[in-house]
Design a protein that fits this description.
The complex is a heterodimer of chains A (294) and B (423). With 294 residues, chain A is mainly alpha-helical. Chain A has 16 helices and two strands. The chains are: A mainly alpha (294), B alpha/beta (423).
């Protein structure tokens, strides 16, 4: 408290605009969502109340282990798997792309040009991009044509599209950039002389990578991971379109509830999703203290 | 120094941009109808059947301008609830009425102000086509048409002066198929779950409409006969969803679709050969030169109907302009425009005046085309000699089995549907 008061008034003033934005567009809506998640509702309105029905329904039958796994657990399990697989591939690919950009491309111009190339997936609208996968991966698509004509497969491979595979492919294709940027940023700040010192002390390339570069890139890796995981946790458009609407996502459940004006139920789902996502981020920041590293 | 200057400039421009955006946002808050000279109507709806040609013709005929607020079916309903003053007129579906009317956000429409009211098709007013009763399972328009008064929140069972919506457009929906890939006649809804089409079928992922298609299939398979498909009990919902969950687990469906364009792509690419589909989607596949049939089925059609409503705050000059717009809409030109897209106009005699005889024979009478049939945009839809899928108006609308619906157990149904998707 004392510390807070010692801040110069001018510095305090500078933080006002952002604080206001934060309060009005983040804190207040979030609080409202939390409050409404305890309200009741009917077909056309929401009714102020304090009930736990919205939450208890989400976990209905979830702790009855004789039956099949409940929808909520199934949905979260599938979302967690997508998160992990997407995180794994974006990390591996993103790390090496960033590595190449930071250590093998020496001119700033080329770094910028190559960076722009990485943003190409974002140049078209979401829907068009998703639809464009059909001619590539579809039953009569390019990949299947190739497999059939070379004799590698004797029937069209249906798992290429509208499957877990196509969802992960679309995620990796899109979100690798979110890994590249923070990792690249961390790498650019590594003092080259540290690498030279390691080299002079007889470390080989692999040892330098493992013992010098990766530890120094941790903040970038964590920030990138937070981006990727939060985006995948809340996604329903990519999972919907690439999964042929047959693979569940929490986002889709919330969306359907909202379109049927079941706002309190949607709010309860959103609160749980938010809590879980924050938990994951909290665990990640426990592993590495981002503030200290920055 | 130079750097700070450019940054300042950038700030200036961005502030201006933000200001402009905020200003535009503020302006939207005012009612659009205030100037006496060029009235503008804010038209909320899906606008799938509206094109630039309609706006132009409207302005030429009446001097009224329309600004479309385009949203999906479910979002239109949501907007009426949450922002009832953000539009001047709404194009909504009848099956939303059981939800909307109790909210009191819509005005009872005065039929005395509608010139062509007596000519509105009997499918709406009496649930009859050519004097014969048609299927009324689900939220049939006649059930939710009349109100007890202008401000009433209750439906009247007998015709009254006030109605919920002024009917505009309706159609009978069925399954779309790719005849070139199926290569045999299809005559029943049951074919959607036929293992022959394993991995090549699709259904739409909009619970309130999907459940009706599902019910048609379940009934056609002989699994169960619903007392009312449009108002299932919890047990009936469970049964329907169980059959579809099993089919889904067995890999029957290639994908589900929720967007019009998705259904077009699934069909055009051959990923799917049989699926629930909407009439303009069939047209879109056909105009690509790919054969696609809106297959009439022996169990009948699932029908839907839409109309115009006004927010309950409408009065005075604003109401006058909206009624003028509706009267223009029903006066024939738009009716013909809708009929040419494969829909049906609510007022048939006026639409006839604006159609050529050969068009009328093809679209409404079910006769073979005596010339190429063009869409309103001038694209070829059918060649000389072809007959419309399902035939005449009387054969198609007369064959309606049920209507899009809002069920009493809607909440339960949406949850069960979500469970099916998650299974």
């Amino acid at each position: 408290m004392m510390k807070f008061l010692k801040i110069k008034p001018t510095v305090g003033l500078l933080s006002i605009p952002y604080s206001l934005i934060f309060i009005f567009f983040f804190f207040i809506p979030l609080t409202l969502t939390f409050i409404i998640s305890f309200w009741d509702y009917n077909e056309y309105s929401i009714i102020p109340d304090f009930i736990f029905e919205n939450y208890s329904y989400i976990f209905k039958d979830c702790f009855n282990f004789e039956k099949d796994m409940c929808v909520t657990f199934k949905t979260y399990l599938s979302t967690f798997i997508f998160c992990f697989v997407t995180w794994f591939f974006t990390l591996i690919i993103g790390f090496f792309v960033a590595y190449f950009l930071a250590f093998y491309v020496n001119s700033i111009t080329w770094q910028i040009v190559l960076f722009l190339l990485c943003t190409i997936p974002f140049w078209t609208s979401n829907v068009i991009r998703m639809i464009s996968w059909i001619p590539l991966l579809g039953r009569n698509g390019l990949v299947n044509d190739f497999l059939l004509s070379t004799g590698l497969a004797d029937a069209p491979q249906e798992w290429l599209l509208y499957s877990g595979f196509s969802i992960v492919l679309a995620f990796v294709h899109l979100y690798t950039l979110f890994m590249i940027v923070p990792i690249f940023n961390s790498m650019m700040r590594i003092d080259k002389s540290i690498i030279e010192a390691a080299y002079d002390n007889g470390a080989n390339g692999l040892q330098i990578l493992w013992n010098v570069i990766i530890p120094l890139c941790k903040p970038g890796i964590v920030i990138g991971s937070i981006f990727v995981i939060t985006v995948v946790m809340g996604d329903f458009i990519t999972i919907g379109i690439m999964g042929g609407q047959q693979i569940p996502s929490i986002g889709k459940i919330i969306y359907v509830e909202m379109s049927y004006l079941q706002l309190p139920a949607a709010a309860a789902n959103a609160v749980i999703l938010l809590a879980l996502t924050l938990l994951i981020i909290w665990i990640m920041t426990k592993m590495i203290d981002i503030r200290k590293e920055l | 120094m130079k750097k700070s200057l450019t940054r300042r400039n950038m700030l200036k421009t961005s502030t201006a941009a933000v200001g402009a955006v905020a200003g535009a946002g503020l302006l939207k808050g005012f009612p659009a109808i205030h100037a006496a000279d060029a009235p503008v109507i804010r038209y909320l709806g899906t606008a799938v059947n509206m094109g630039d040609a309609v706006q132009k013709r409207l302005f030429d005929d009446t001097g009224i301008k329309v600004k479309f607020i385009v949203k999906t079916t479910d979002e239109v309903v949501k907007t009426i609830f949450t922002q009832p003053n953000s539009f001047d007129i709404v194009d909504s579906e009848y099956f939303s009425m059981p939800k909307l009317v109790p909210s009191g956000n819509l005005l009872g429409m005065d039929t005395k102000r509608i010139k062509e009211w007596d000519n509105v098709t009997s499918a709406f007013t009496k649930g009859e086509v050519a004097g014969k009763k048609i299927g009324d399972q689900g939220t049939a328009p006649k059930k939710v048409m009349y109100l007890k008064g202008a401000k009433s929140k209750e439906f009247a069972s007998e015709p009254t002066q006030y109605v919920t919506l002024i009917p505009t457009v309706y159609n009978a929906d069925t399954l779309g198929i790719r005849p070139d890939l199926i290569k045999r006649p299809i005559s029943s809804w049951a074919e959607l779950l036929n293992p022959e089409f394993k991995g090549k079928a699709s259904i739409l992922n909009i619970p309130s409409i999907g459940i009706m298609d599902a019910a048609m299939v379940v009934e056609a398979m002989g699994e169960y006969k619903y007392p009312d498909k449009g108002n299932m009990t919890k047990e009936e919902i469970d049964l329907t969803m169980k059959i579809f969950t099993e089919a889904k687990k067995a890999g029957q469906f290639r994908a589900f679709w929720s967007d019009f364009n998705e259904s077009v792509n699934l069909m055009a690419s051959g990923e799917v050969v049989i699926q629930s589909m909407w009439s303009p989607a069939i047209t879109a596949v056909r105009t690509k030169g790919i054969p696609c049939v809106y297959q009439p089925l022996k169990e009948g059609y699932r029908a839907w109907a839409a109309g115009f409503g006004l927010p309950s705050t409408t009065k005075g000059r604003q109401a006058d302009i909206c009624y003028e717009f509706i009267n223009w809409y029903l006066s024939g030109w738009v009716g013909a425009y809708l009929n040419r897209q494969g829909y049906y106009s609510a007022v048939i005699p006026t639409a006839k005046k604006y159609m050529e005889a050969y068009e009328w024979d093809y679209w409404m009478m079910g006769k073979p085309a005596t010339a190429d049939i063009m869409s309103p945009e001038g694209k070829k839809l059918a060649s000389k000699g072809e007959v419309r899928d399902g035939g005449s108006y009387e054969a198609r609308m007369g064959g309606v089995a049920c209507w899009n619906a809002t069920m009493d157990e809607n909440k339960y149904m949406v949850r069960k549907w979500n469970e099916m998707i998650a299974s």
